[in-house]
Amino acid sequence: MDPVVSIITPAYNAGKYITKTINSVLAQSFEEWELLIIDDYSSDNTAEVVLTLLEKDNRIKYVRMPMNGGPVKARNHGISISIGRFIAFLDSDDSWFPNKLEVQVKFMLEHNIALSYTSYYADNGITRILRKVPQRLSYNQLLKKCHIGCLTAMYDADQIGKPAMPDFPKRHDWAYWLGMLSGGGYAYGILEPLATYTLRQTSLSANKIDLVKHNWRVFKMYEGNGIKAHYKFAIFMFVNVWYTVSEKIGLRLNALFRKSA
């Protein structure tokens, strides 16, 4: 039987933490999946770790890229070789709750949804905070704030096809969802948190100042370079600064409450 869900996991020097990620997939109550580990030419023991786990379950598939090309190329290669109806994404240091696929596939099939996402936790190793999502998002709403965590996103390739992600070094996932919604329609959210995102200071998204130019690149792609685009971008920046500050305050308060408990 062909897998219903193809899970794309780019991995680069992920040997220290990818076991937890893979185990969270192996623990899924929904069993009709394939896990495509796309090794972006790692120089550590990523291959050894993955191949050991692959021996235990043939639903795990390992592909090594011929050279290091970054997460976009790795994800796009995974998308191109996937055979499932639904495409999902899980980075090599993140994890899913055991019912993630079961809940999300059922939700999409029952409501004929093309693109869905869920709430999730952001964890910095000391404490974690819940990132709640809206029940649905239009293109214009998503343009103000990317509420879709890549580790929670799932789309129906029967409805959307298998387009490649834009080849941006950062924010390519946000640009990807915007492209799916640019012709109209909505993405739909599951309010229940079903995944955990690992916050790392060395991650691509850690440098918020550097992200500004990459955010603007996405805006230019879809909104052009006119006054209207600059106005929308100003709104986007205000909203995202607010969310970022609020989350940092929340993480610090959670850490303080843990210490005092």
From TrEMBL:
Gene3D superfamilies xrefs: Spore Coat Polysaccharide Biosynthesis Protein SpsA, Chain A
Keyword Repeat: no
Top-level lineage group: Bacteria
UniProt keyword annotation of Transferase present: yes
Residue ranges of domain Glycosyltransferase 2-like in the record: 6-135
UniProt GO molecular function: hexosyltransferase activity
Coiled coil stretches, renumbered: none
Alphabetical keyword list: Transferase
Protein name: Glycosyl transferase
